[in-house]
């Protein structure tokens, strides 16, 4: 994804920060399992290298067919390869042996969301949270699933729960703000982006989301002030040129 503006080329649509936050949290959790395979995956940055890693895991599984950890590693690699169905199937095999395996529930829910099997994803996230109710990533995942199901009020309830559970997290404030922005609850969204920026003032995505709302409300002076504040906190001005232009 581009990290800087290139005015002479066509701009690609900016991904919703909501999706960015969710994806980052998912990736962090996947990497925890992959640390167990650091020797073979530390430099695995290309699809070919991930496929090589999958081949290594499959060989290990053949030698140790009862190892749930190896199967979970395989599921994680399948997610990196965007092989959603294979990942979900592997997690199903793990859950057949250990019905309360949190990692398998989390991975399968993530895979099912990418397969647009949102009710299945919801079931797995809800099972996960019944056992680990304070888990931030799973609650974000459930909220995202509710959004995909068109159940925004329930998604907002999950966001409110997250803010109560993790009041020091910039991510949960920004995620709730993004949902409120989509629901056109602009005042509360601005509050949440301000709270997120108090905790992470140099975050470009939070600033841009706030600026988008201010511009939509024709509050361009406030939008420019928000951009200037981000620059003062270390965000390169060149990354914000598109938004400065919209403030004129």
Please provide a brief summary of the model.
It contains 14 helices and no strands. With 248 residues, the protein is mostly helical.
Structure, described:
With 248 residues, the chain is mostly helical. Helices cover 72% and strands 0% of the residues. The protein is built from 14 helices and no strands. It has helices at 17-34, 38-41, 47-63, 68-80, 84-97, 102-114, 118-131, 136-148, 152-165, 170-182, 186-199, 204-216, 220-232, 241-246. Helix 3 (47-63) packs antiparallel against helix 4 (68-80) and helix 10 (170-182) packs antiparallel against helix 11. The longest helix is centred in the N-terminal third of the chain and has 18 residues, at 17-34. The protein starts with 16 loop residues before the first helix and ends with a helix. 36% of the residues are buried.
Shape: elongated
Helicity, as a percent range = over 70%
Helices and strands, in order, run as: HHHHHHHHHHHHHH
Poorly predicted regions: 1-18, 24-44
How many β-strand runs?
0
Overall mean pLDDT stands at: 84
Count of runs of 4 or more consecutive helical residues: 14
Largest sheet: none
Q: What quaternary form is this? A: single chain
SS content category? mainly alpha
Whole-angstrom Rg: 20 Å
Q: What is the terminal separation in angstroms?
A: 27 Å
Residue fraction in strands? under 5%
